[in-house]
Amino acid sequence: MHTLTSLHDRQRAAQQQVRDQIWTLYADLKAYQRAPDPAAIAPLRARFEAIFTQKTAGLPSTKP
């Protein structure tokens, strides 16, 4: 995430939103690690999937 560069304000805002989602999830995972709750597993997994499978607007990929 730190190596991504955005050219437009909207892209920067979207990038920051995803970054915030990741750090919030990370904090919640650390809290789960300290005090595991089986009821929290499904919601944590769902949030992980939602974050890491979302499509964001941006520049076309340069990968072949």
TrEMBL record:
Highest taxon above the source species: Bacteria
Protein name: Uncharacterized protein
Record organism: Thiorhodococcus drewsii AZ1
